[in-house]
Specification:
By secondary structure, the chain is mostly helical. About 75% of the residues lie in helices and about 0% in strands. The radius of gyration is 18 Å and the shape is globular.
């Protein structure tokens, strides 16, 4: 990611108005920030600054090309990271902005699997709080069913991406749909490595499979 960011910066000098370069820079900043240490307040602040840089470049990408589906997707992702760093429930407006950006991204490109996945994640984050608390804040739209629907759509468009299946399986487990969760988790071990965190995700998938097996054994007793 660091090497990619350096090359994108060089490319931007040659094409300062290229929306794809801008959103790719945003993505690189997010990926780098996700792996930064956050053991103390100083480290957390450094990470937040990286996420804010990601949001800055995503905003520039949207401004450069308001018809770019990926520009809106990356802005939503960067917004989500900033909101998490600031505290989701002190950043209510950002949650609404994320939903709007992702729905816009999908309207521009119905095959944008990353947008469907991110929209699913947005729904899952919103429902972390009980409906009675989030409804007065304008977040009554959060739904696990909608999250699963978007995860499944992302998987249909990109069947070999480990994280999509892991997140979908986790949502199914929360719904009590263990067989559907197992179907996604079982296939993860055979998928190719496409992301630097895929090995970690495979470990999580294996742990969830063990959890499902344990719960089923408990039910049989």
């Amino acid at each position: 990611n660091q090497k990619a960011l350096a090359l994108y910066a060089e490319a931007l000098v040659l094409e300062s108005g290229n929306d794809e370069i801008l959103w790719r820079i945003s993505r690189a900043y997010v990926d780098i920030a996700e792996h930064m240490p956050v053991g103390d307040e100083e480290e957390k602040e450094k990470q937040l600054l990286m996420y804010e840089k990601a949001l800055e470049f995503a905003n520039k990408s949207v401004e450069t090309n308001p018809n770019s589906s990926m520009a809106f997707t990356r802005r939503a992702v960067a917004t989500g990271r900033v909101s998490l760093s600031n505290g989701m429930w002190t950043s209510i407006g950002m949650m609404k902005d994320m939903r709007e950006d992702l729905e816009k991204a999908i309207s521009l490109d119905s095959a944008n699997h990353a947008a469907y996945y991110a929209l699913g994640r947005t729904h899952m984050r919103v429902i972390d709080r009980p409906f009675i608390l989030r409804w007065p804040l304008g977040l009554g739209w959060g739904s696990r069913e909608e999250a699963i629907k978007n995860f499944e759509k992302a998987i249909t468009l990109r069947e070999d991406f480990v994280l999509y299946r892991l997140e979908c399986a986790s949502a199914y487990i929360e719904e009590g749909e263990l067989e559907k969760a197992r179907a996604h988790l079982t296939i993860i071990s055979s998928l190719p490595t496409l992301d630097e965190d895929d090995e970690m995700y495979r470990k999580e998938a294996s742990e969830l499979l063990d959890k499902i097996k344990s719960e089923e054994e408990d039910d049989e007793r």
